[in-house]
Amino acid sequence: MDVAIFILLLYFGFATVYLFALAVFSLLPEKKYQPKTNKLNRYAVLIPDYRENKIILDVARSALSHDYLDDFFDVYVIADGVKPETVAILEEYGCNVLEVQFENSTKAKSLNAALNAIEEDKYDYAVVLDVDNIMQPGFLNQVNIVHNSGYKVVQGHRTAKNINTNTAYLDALSEESANSLIRRGIFRLGGSAMIIGSAFSIEWKLFKRLMSDIQDVAGEDRELEIRILQERIKIAYSSSAVVLDEKVENWGNYTRQRSRWAAAHLDFVLKYFAKGFAQFFKGNFDYFNKVLHSLVPPRIILLAALMVFFILSLTISHFPFSEWWISLFLLYIVTLMLSIPKRFYTKRMLVALLELPKMLLLMVISWCKAKGQRDKFVSTPHTYTGEKN
Predict the structure, then answer these.
(1) Rounded CA separation 249/383 (Å)
(2) How far apart are the first and last CA of the chain?
(3) 348: left (phi over 0), alpha (psi -120 to 50) or beta
(4) Cα gap 106→110, rounded to integer Å
(5) pLDDT at residue 264 greater than cutoff 70
(6) What does the alpha-carbon distance between residue 58 and residue 67 come to, in Å, rounded to a whole number?
(7) Which domains does the chain have, with CATH numbers?
(8) What is the dihedral of CA 95, 378, 170, 252, to 10 degrees?
(9) Least trusted range by pLDDT, from 37-46, 339-348, 350-359
């Protein structure tokens, strides 16, 4: 029993110290980019749309009115299963609409269809948005500065569009924590920020080449990222390039979404675990760090596990390594506090945190359902209507 508990201590200790280090580095000032040129690059804003006929209209209209020079960016909606009347409205707005139809739809297939349909030399970079994403003023200008500083890939700061329910609030809290740890923290430490699946910009030709053989249902961002890192290309992070993202409003949608993510995560670990350590010995530390991070349990599960051992250490006399468990739990609480932006420290947080046990339970359920989500695509319903948060 002591040996088993010691092994768990080593594993959870690694995860906690790893995240604590990232939290500390995330507190450093934002990296100052030094553009080598004032060039205005041309951008294609790609928005895959799977059967969304309402929210896409507002998203497209917002994208078209973005504050970047009109002649230097275009908006493309890749319409999969979208109604003809919606397509007509989008075209009337001035969107480029690419209609596609697949036997088994995926985001990767839609993106590849666009990359193959658009002239290769027409744009310098592609920006990927989800169907519910809204670029905030200055997004493309900020991204352009980072590209002109020598980075081929830039992950923007995706943040919550809505916190109108406790579910959405906790989802927003989780994403901001991830932004601090695995994007800002890693990048300030000198590594590559991790791609989140949307709100990122990438060199056009590089994107087309790396995406050409990616068809995964829920893991196209992970597959793309590992290919970027394999070529030793640094992924930058810009907290000033902001994109609003809709957070799930109910626990049912949360479970379905996390099940897809868990499936992609498990597949990633099985596929790249050994390769990650091989890349370490070749000096590719960004690739190794990506695989290393995949071994860290979800933050809420890590919190629950450490809390259990914390309670056991306080209530059971001579519990093995009790001092270490107590120290790890307290260190992890500090880590989470450092990773969450100050604006979230309100009474609303206390109310939302009461639903953490439910969030944990649903996270466990989503991981149990992960295997069944590997071979099918189910989009997350979008229900936010713009009501007051």
Answers:
(1) 8
(2) 48
(3) alpha
(4) 7
(5) no
(6) 16
(7) 2-27+293-371 (no CATH), 43-264 (3.90.550.10)
(8) 130
(9) 350-359
Nearest alpha carbon to residue 129 among 52, 190, 48: 48
On the CB side of 379, CA atoms within 13 Å amount to: 17
In 101-196 the beta strands, taken as DSSP E runs, fall at: 125-128, 134-135, 153-160
DSSP letters spanning 66-88? -SS-GGGEEEEEEEES--HHHHH
pTM, rounded to two decimals = 0.89
Q: Of 197, 202, 60, whose CA–CA distance to 123 is shortest?
A: 202
pLDDT (tens digit per residue) in 133-154: 999 999 999 999 999 999 999 9
Residue 326, phi-psi category: left (phi > 0), alpha (psi -120 to 50), beta (remainder):
alpha
Task: Measure the CA–CA gap between 216 and 210, rounded to whole angstroms.
Answer: 13
Identify the DSSP state of 50.
E
Q: How far apart are alpha carbons 184 and 193 in whole angstroms?
A: 7
Q: Are 66 and 135 in contact, with CB atoms under 8 Å apart?
A: yes
Q: Which of 181, 195, 238, 175 is nearest to 21 (CA)?
A: 181
Distance between CA atoms of residues 159 and 168, nearest Å: 11
Cβ neighbours of residue 102 closer than 8 Å, sequence gap 6 or more: 80, 109
pLDDT of the residue at 387: 46
pLDDT of residue 108: 93
Could you give phi then psi for residue 341, rounded to 5 degrees?
-55, 150
Torsion angle of the four alpha carbons 332, 333, 336, 338, in this order, in degrees rounded to the nearest 10: -100
Q: How many residues does the chain have?
A: 389
Question: What's the confidence (pLDDT) of residue 273?
Answer: 86
Distances (CA, A) of 337 to 43, 173, 210, 371: 37, 11, 37, 33
